[in-house]
């Protein structure tokens, strides 16, 4: 962790925080304690801003990431309906609820969790999913 420091020829204490994007912020303080408190707060905020989405790659599943992707990026594409359909196959296969496009009063599209009852998977995808979940035999 960074510590407050003094600069030769200047009065007081100085603290500097470097952010992940490369820019730095430096402030001067009369007291060492004030500099340390400011530095602790800024470092905590910088760390919180760089926290990984959905817990990071070790904690998130492909289906969870696809759901987040659909909410952020799918709607701006021309073929959003087809892409959302493909994403829904993964979500259902992972046991997550399907997503649907909802248009509000201002004609703005949004992705929300589907409120309709669950539908059966397409036959080809159901067969693929069943084959994946079937235990493999190790005997020749």
Secondary structure: elements and pairs:
Blueprint: E1 13-18, E2 24-29, H1 32-49, H2 62-72, H3 80-93, E3 99-103, E4 109-113, H4 123-133
Antiparallel strand pairs: 1-2, 3-4
Helix pairs in contact: 2-3
Structural account:
This protein is of the alpha+beta class. The chain folds into two domains: 13-51; 62-133, no CATH class. The chain has helices spanning 32-49, 62-72, 80-93, 123-133, and strands at 13-18, 24-29, 99-103, 109-113. Helix 2 runs antiparallel to helix 3. The longest helix is centred in the first third of the chain and has 18 residues, at 32-49. The termini are far apart. 11% of the residues are buried.
């Amino acid at each position: 962790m960074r510590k407050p420091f003094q600069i030769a020829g200047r009065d007081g204490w100085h603290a500097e925080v470097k952010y992940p994007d490369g820019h730095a912020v430096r402030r001067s303080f009369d007291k060492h304690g004030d500099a340390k408190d400011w530095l602790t707060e800024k470092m905590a905020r910088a760390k919180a801003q760089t926290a990984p989405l959905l817990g990071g790659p070790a904690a998130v599943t492909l289906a969870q990431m696809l759901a987040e992707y659909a909410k952020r990026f799918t709607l701006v594409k021309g073929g959003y309906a087809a892409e959302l359909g493909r994403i829904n196959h993964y979500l259902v296969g992972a046991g997550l609820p399907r997503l649907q496009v909802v248009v509000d009063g201002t004609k703005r599209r949004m992705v929300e969790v589907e409120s309709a009852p669950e539908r059966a998977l397409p036959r080809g995808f159901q067969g693929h999913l069943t084959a994946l979940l079937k235990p493999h035999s190790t005997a020749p």
